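Box S1 | Example of a co-folding query
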Amino acid sequence: MEKTFVMVKPDGVQRGVVGEIVNRFEKKGYKIVAAKMMQVSKDLAEEHYGQHKERPFFGELVDFITSSPVFAMVLEGENVISSARVMMGATNPADAAPGTIRGDFAVSIGMNIIHGSDSPESAEREIGLWFDKSELTDYEVAS
Ligand code: CMP
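Box S1 (continued) | Returned holo structure for adenosine-3',5'-cyclic-monophosphate
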């Protein structure tokens, strides 16, 4: 079954909307297979956002992600990689539709409240970067 990496960024944690965001994914039908609150190191932030290294906002992005704790999780389910991104809305909250997470909770592209893997390759890389294999649970959902 497909898995993806999702992180509630420092702005989401500080505003107290972690529960509401988790609730949306749970209600949709995705399974949380791993989750943790963590303070991100500069090394992890730079590696996670490595593809943006040359962008002018890279330093700002790393400073923001390391500024206070994030809530990181791994979600599992059918088409969860693309579907979780639809639920998040456009990267720039100004373009995110109402009803999406960014559309409802964020206004600025730098502080856009949540990150989700954008492809199967990114999901595999990011899950491996943020979680040890031993932290991923495996359980059946009762029906
Ligand atoms: P995210 O999905 O975490 O992946 C890369 C992040 O870079 C993105 O969300 C935005 O928060 C951030 N980002 C993209 N463009 C800009 C920008 N122009 N200025 C600041 N941050 C940006």
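The domain at 2-39+71-138 is CATH 3.30.70.141 (Alpha-Beta Plaits). The chain is about 40% helix and 15% strand.
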